[in-house]
Amino acid sequence: MRSVRRAGLALTAATALILAACSAGEPGQTGGSATASGSETGSGGTAGGDTITIGIKFDQPGLGLKEGNDFTGFDVGVAKYVAGKLGYAENQIKFVESISSQRETLLENGSVDMIFATYSITDARKERVAFAGPYFVAGQDLLVAADNTDITGPDSLNGKVLCSVEGSTSAERIRDEHAQQTQLYPAPTYSECVELLSAGNVDAVTTDDVILAGYAAQSQYEGKFKLVGQPFSEENYGVGLPKDNDRCEDVNAAITSMIDDGTWEELIKKNVGESFTPNPSLNPPKVQACA
Ligand code: GLU
């Protein structure tokens, strides 16, 4: 049984890699907008310019989701609010996909002006990019099959196969703290991890609780998964900005007013409220001073 399952994982993993290779270059160029807008308005283009290019996730229900030409989720709502405060109407926003492993690069090469993509503020990332915020605090958790009884938290991962996403703090934490006990399959996106879990090819998907709750609540997975519910990190979601930006203070002011005027609460209720309750001792957070 075990070897069949492993073989299945290898096959699916290979398929995922091939798919990733075929679509390489897509994130950040979707709709051909990132490059064009990046060069027309310049990265960190001034408020009131034609358009602003914003990186989001395209495959994370409740946070950043692209369905046809519709973009929904908490990150999208926060992005629209902040862009509005910076002087951009909704039709001046170009959303482009920013998968976890490409976020720093997209900011560095000017493909995007800002990123709202479940993007944790970390010291390592601050070497390459800047952050406004935080505007939300999540925690790393585990998503398992509904009938799984042996994974109860980060201390019960012995011999387990986990899926997480390359370039995320989630994958890094497993490598740093659980490499001895676990096998990590790094996928390009969380939706691919969730498919592997659904097919029984991995034992758990690990990333932020709010992300996992969004997948578990999708109708096609109804009753299939459960969130373990023992968060083992603090993920402060920041707004990614190019390192030499002049927007950080304005973005922080916008986030503060979003929290103060009740929009934050509304966006949480509307986008994740049914599947997830944010940790009330950490949310809503206070913004940090810009560096
Ligand atoms: N918040 C974590 C990170 O920024 C995990 C989620 C993600 O990969 O977007 O790495």
From TrEMBL:
GO CC terms in record: extracellular region; outer membrane-bounded periplasmic space
Domain Solute-binding protein family 3/N-terminal, chain residue ranges per copy: 51-275
Residues in the signal sequence: 1-24
Organism domain of life: Bacteria
Keyword set, alphabetical order: Signal, Transport
Keyword Methyltransferase applies: no
Keyword Signal: yes
Database matches in Pfam families: SBP_bac_3 (PF00497)
Any one Gene Ontology BP term: amino acid transport
Transmembrane segments: none
Gene3D superfamilies, per database record: Periplasmic binding protein-like II
Family indicated by similarity: Belongs to the bacterial solute-binding protein 3 family.
Protein name: Transporter substrate-binding domain-containing protein
